[in-house]
């Protein structure tokens, strides 16, 4: 079995060092292209969120409220008009940027003229008012706190979530610039310390920490980590923490979004890459859901394409579990799970996405998954031995640069 070869210290780090140089060179090239301002029209049309002071964001809100009052004065029914989030025609994919919103796209209109959008309009203008008050007082609130401040009016948490995203898109600013924060569920462990919003030094080495809600204000990253390992499942993350992967496989940082990642976990991963410029590797299930989670970290999503610059980490490499690994390590079919109809539908949907179509190696793995009709969870590696993943699989994959 190929995976049973010994892992030498020099070869283990050489692949990571080469990957680190490759990624840093790519980052330098991207920044150079930005400086010389590429003249391609499609590049110019990319919609990017602005970095503004809270006073500038307040001014933007004031402009929309003024428009609202002017419409009422003219006996007109006011409306909000902004770029429609999501949709293939409204986004563009660039390998070094992820899925980004185009600047001139189909518009979405929420108007008091439309009976169906009355409640949406009321929710948006109420959320605008809450954002303005938070900015005025220089305070922050979570979307959940905002919802519970008036449950009967908002009716659902989803209504608040959508309104905040729409406001962010309409103003062209990231959501944290509105002083509305998302609740974090992600976890972080390893050779890392940083300063949080209150100036406290957070050390992640002992038992790990929860990803802070106030990611945008995290500063002063200190780390000797050689790589970041992003893990789909909390159970696998906890196991690697207990195994002390940070000691056994060299200084590293472990992260998990506990399945589908929340915004703060994605934002923190991007900030870590920007600060440390070390390889980022993903460990997910060999199934369509795991592949999609890896792609969310890597390329982002259509619904949040207006915030891509803060939420994507295109340098992520797919370390495992890759469908080809299932045969290489001789996992018996009895430990594999047949693909459901929903799995097959998801896999075929992935094959149609523009960022997947431009990655032939990933396409090959998805097609292999479909042809076999079987999927593998990370835990299936335990069918070989309880220590196979930590002692053989991960060291072998990193040593040989076996990532996509």
Features of this protein?
404 residues; alpha/beta; three-stranded antiparallel beta sheet; 17 helices
Describe the structure in brief.
The chain is α/β, with parallel strands linked by helices and 404 residues long. The protein has 17 helices and 17 strands. The chain is 46% helix and 15% strand.
How would you describe this structure to a colleague?
With 404 residues, the chain is α/β, with parallel strands linked by helices. It contains 17 helices and 17 strands. A 6-stranded mixed sheet has the order 10-7-13-12-14-15, with helices on both faces. A 3-stranded antiparallel sheet has the order 9-8-11, covered by helices on one side. Strands 1-4 form a two-stranded antiparallel ribbon. Strand 2 and strand 3 form a beta hairpin. Helix 3 crosses helix 4 and helix 4 packs across helix 7. The radius of gyration is 23 Å and the shape is globular. About 4% of the residues have low confidence.
The order of strands across the largest sheet is: 10-7-13-12-14-15
**Structural class, judged by helices and strands?**
alpha/beta
User: How many distinct helices?
Assistant: 17
Q: Could you give the count of β-strands?
A: 17
Distance between the termini: 21 Å
Kindly state the mean pLDDT as a whole number?
83
| Uncertain residue ranges | 32-48
Kindly provide the radius of gyration, computed on alpha-carbon positions and rounded to a whole number of angstroms: 23 Å
Please render the helix and strand layout as text.
Blueprint: H1 9-36, H2 41-44, H3 54-73, E1 79-83, E2 91-94, E3 98-101, E4 107-111, H4 118-137, E5 141-142, H5 143-148, H6 151-154, H7 157-171, E6 180-181, E7 187-190, E8 193-195, E9 201-203, E10 209-210, E11 219-222, E12 227-231, H8 234-242, H9 245-248, E13 252-256, H10 263-276, E14 280-283, H11 288-299, H12 308-311, E15 317-320, H13 323-328, E16 337-338, H14 341-351, H15 354-357, H16 360-372, E17 374-375, H17 388-399
Parallel strand pairs: 5-6, 12-13, 12-14, 14-15
Antiparallel strand pairs: 1-4, 2-3, 7-10, 7-13, 8-9, 8-11, 16-17
Helix pairs in contact: 1-17, 3-4, 4-7, 14-16
